[in-house]
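Protocol step 4 of 6: structure prediction from sequence.
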Amino acid sequence: MKPWHELGVAEAGRALDAGAFSSVELTKHLLARLAAHHDLGTLLGSDPALALRQAEAADARRARGEQGALLGVPLGHKDIFVSRDLPSTAGSKMLAGYFSPFDATVLERLGAAGTVTLGKLNCDEFAMGSANENSAWGAVRNPWDRARVPGGSSGGSAAAVAARLLPAATGTDTGGSIRQPASFTGITGIKPTYGVCSRYGMVAFASSLDQAGPLARSAEDCAILLGAMSGFDARDSTSAERPPQDFRAQMLAPRVGASTARPLAGLRIGLPKEFFPAALDRDVDAAVRAALAEFERLGATLVDVSLPRTELSIPVYYIIAPAEASSNLSRFDGVRYGHRAAAYTDLQDMYMKSRSEGFGAEVKRRIMIGTYVLSHGYYDAYYVQAQKLRRMIADDFQACFRECDLIAGPVAPSVAWKLGAQSEDPVANYLADIFTLPASLAGLPGMSVPAGFGAGDMPVGLQLIGNYFQEGALLHAAHAFQQATDWHERKPAGY
């Protein structure tokens, strides 16, 4: 058997079922690894006693004859999900020391499945960022190269999984915040269709875009986690009213006409020309095209398609998302929620000082942009136009899906950059999201699959995008690819 910390979700679940070790033993092992590698900056809050109680409860359930793919499996959770037993900060000083009176639905459902919570994981403040350098609690480091960023905003989740500190973690994706860090750290991550996972208990950034999803070692692990996380929630008005899905079964279901050697026979994969621009780094282009050649060997057919409004996705996103953020974050006023300034003269002064002290630079920047585009005289010129273009971007995808089953391309234009390299140029960070934003704006499912390595021996991810509620098709294609390659099994040296 592999060392315990190298086991993914499915492997750990099978080992627990077989009695190879107990959940308590596995939890103690992983808590020790989290402590030993605290300098990666992944962990924000942990309660070892709580984790061990949950592990003991899982072992007791298994002793009574219960089994389950997630029963006793330890996980970490992005600190954007509120929880009763651990602080929920959203990576911000504004929520320092905040304890929620309830658990987020995603955490509630994973807890019911028997998972163990190892801790809350670092993220960009209020999920705003592409490098995990915006956290009030310090930057997260990429375990492949500690001088580089892990991606964001789910950088703490991605780095912890990549460093084998835990088998998997939850994340959220608003404009690429699962897929991009998964790509930068060489792991697998999926953002499901908007509405598949409940947003209840997720600290809101942009309500029409935010979606939860798993980051793990493999497509199989993601399928297991997504099955437990998802499903209709009456407490979330944007939750999709669909019956529970067995994504692992969908992943394993063979295609009609497929064979062992060609499991993807008949699958048409669209390659938008806009996803392979001249500005795409050569090393990333080479890794992605090599992965696509493997998909061809597995039976898939590559089809040229077009998403003509890809470049417009950046200005559209950075109008809509900040607009929603400015509204959502207005609740943090020092009165009802969040940090309150220690000294002030009147109510207006308290508002100003509390928000100035509590929010970081990037959050302030997006609040100001959002307030501007929603203000009188600019709403029609900016926000309304952006929403019209958003609809057109979604229409472009539907035109593509008439010619193909899935869409593929790079996750990001480059591999992970050096810490601090873009901290003085927020626009450079924004441009890094050009390939992930279109699917987010359209509400489509997308995932990042490890596809090789680029400059500096840094991981490169392949992005797969499916039509609405086609998570099973995405996972099936990714799983077939991972059965034929070992990119997802590579790990950084020293971990």
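Step 5 (inspection) to follow. The chain has 16 helices and eleven strands.
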